[in-house]
Amino acid sequence: MENALDGPWFTYREIGATKGELPEGYYHFRLQRRLGNGRDLFERAGAEILAYRMQKGVGIFDRASTPTAEPGTLLTVRLGIGPLAIVAPCRVVYVLDDDENRRGFAYGTLPGHPEVGEELFSVEYDPADDSVHGVVTAFSTPATWYTALGGPLVRLLQRVIAGRYLATLPRA
């Protein structure tokens, strides 16, 4: 069987690039917000991210093939309202669970998604000052005529939704 993270599944080549330097040729963004202080807050926020709290809290979660994010999980989000909504398929690329100060996961776009790219949802703990930050990092480019036509409006919408994702996380 083909590895779930290889081959034609993804609509882009730079699989896992949100772990480091974002690839050229895409729109990039990183949004970070302080959630508060403490290791307990970090652990709670990390668990909520892995259980799709960001997507559920914003109201775009459709379904996932696993109850918590793990590499290879198929995930769909609903973008839009009612009959105009688009079901956008994604697959979890990696999970951040081996670093004691970062938790989260990234998913990449599959055929049928209106964008091409990857998005990382994470929480970071800084032991130097005990601070906890929610972070959304992404790179993308339009996959359809209507996202290309939307241009700057689509980019603005991505940033607004990223801010709403971060607002779903616990604070202290």
TrEMBL record:
<protein>
    <submittedName>
        <fullName>DUF1990 domain-containing protein</fullName>
    </submittedName>
</protein>
<feature type="domain" description="DUF1990">
    <location>
        <begin position="11"/>
        <end position="167"/>
    </location>
</feature>
<dbReference type="InterPro" id="IPR018960">
    <property type="entry name" value="DUF1990"/>
</dbReference>
<dbReference type="InterPro" id="IPR014457">
    <property type="entry name" value="UCP010260"/>
</dbReference>
<dbReference type="Pfam" id="PF09348">
    <property type="entry name" value="DUF1990"/>
</dbReference>
